[in-house]
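Q: How would the structure tokens look for this protein?
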Amino acid sequence: MLETEEALNTYLEGTCDEESELLKRINRETYLKETMPHMLSGHFQGRVLAMLSKLVQPKQILEIGTFTGYATLCLAEGLSADGVIHTIDINEEQQERVQGYFNESPYAEQIQYHIGDAATVISSIEGLLDILFIDADKKRNLFYYDALIERVPSGGLILIDNVLWKGKVVLNAADSQTKMVSTLNETLAKDQRVEKLILPIRDGLFVLRKK
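A: Here is the predicted structure in token form.
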């Protein structure tokens, strides 16, 4: 099964647009330097994020969970000419390298990179959020959703990563993290303020459109 999944992933990557040279380098260096490189969005999911962003053409994006900046740059591709993406991460050790990636990109002037506790930082970011991408501490996913949904306008997108949790959500796994992800999914499925579906990409991407 694993070989089939790898072959399918290779096929999907071969039928979508290529990564930029900068994204390829971020991908490669993440796998060389990070202890948990699987947290990277990667080629195919990155193209999905870029496509969704281009369809919305957002003026403001908020990303919670920068990691090495791969998804940030993919989402930035769809920004309107005067748009901005705010991205928040708590890891100071990566800051210099990730800021360097942003500085090399065509979107350097449109990326606001924040280091700190997202629960605190979000209160300093004003205005509507045309896209909200939540990809950080799973314990706080529902908190971020509840805190920010009213700032997403009609037609705006909320994207939440890792909602299949390695398939454990359908195995009735008893561990606390799986329970948190399952509770999140069940809560969002009942929320009538949004249209929603889970894309079975990598570890599952919840896509919610504000009504």
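The longest helix spans residues 42-56.

DSSP finds eight helices and seven strands in the chain.

Upvote if useful.
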